Amino acid sequence: MAIVLVTGSCGLIGSETVSFFAEKGFDVVGIDNNMRKLFFGEDGSVLWNLMRIKAKYKNYKHYSADIRRENQINKIFKKYASDIALIVHAAAQPSHDWAAKDPMIDFGVNAAGTLILLEALRKFCPQAVFIFISTNKVYGDTPNRLPLIEREKRFELPTDHKFYKGIDESMNIDQSLHSVFGASKVSADIMTQEYGRYFGLKTGIFRGGCLTGPLHSGAQLHGFLSYFVKCAITGRKYMIYGYKGKQVRDNIHSYDLVNAFYHFFKAPRSGQVYNIGGSRLANISILEAIDLCEKISGRKFNYEYVDKNRIGDHIWWISDVSKFKSHYPGWQYKFGIEDTMQQIYQAQKELL
Asked: How many domains, the chain?
């Protein structure tokens, strides 16, 4: 039986990947040691998701291993080597702010951990497809140099600008302020490309916008819409940092992203890079998200504005997914922004 190996298997994208492939009949091996709890406290813990996955999928096998420990990873890869068909690398330290507090751990998880996995791929299962979940933060603050127009509740590009429908892979990732997190993800991104281009392995790099969905353990430092909805339900104060709350993010539902992985898995292209996000279909500013949250929850949203943006933060990001769609024309979005927010709200209501 073909095996799908998933790192960060209890996080948002990891657990969506587990569900997607387990329901297609694959055996799934998950690696997750709940470092999100170390990063973000109880809000970030994924133990609830681990229990859910174990109860629901009998074809799931879990390992509480650390991707920074080469001996732990090699032992798992060696055990399943001939059967591994796909590796989805979703484990990460995902926060700008946390990375600045401890660059060593951030780089260890995001960069060194990725290299350990790539070497395990090369040694034990070079036949497998390897998908790395990168980030739009590899572009640093270059998007902030775009000629943005301030509108009532969002920043926006002129309709005749070449990036109006979204930013594509032609944007330079060099000579910009990335944040420590962005820099560690650049390292992993480039190395994953290199294992595809230099060693000829079937690696794919997906540079995500905001990744979201009902299985997200959102916390203050990470998980925009999930934590946003958590604040809406509990009345907890949400802090808006800079840009007048008009900063724009595109948001892709975890199912739509994992479905993109599936299309790549069926017809991989070595070392290819794809910008992937909600595009023009699903994007929202913070002020617009407040309006939508109030509409969905029926209660006033509690927030405070701090007139200082996070270092390296984007003012406006919408992904152009044209390259991926041209390579995989059978892939389509299933969820828009309001559908996704409704799902997150219902899931949070059940948990809180």
From this structure: 1
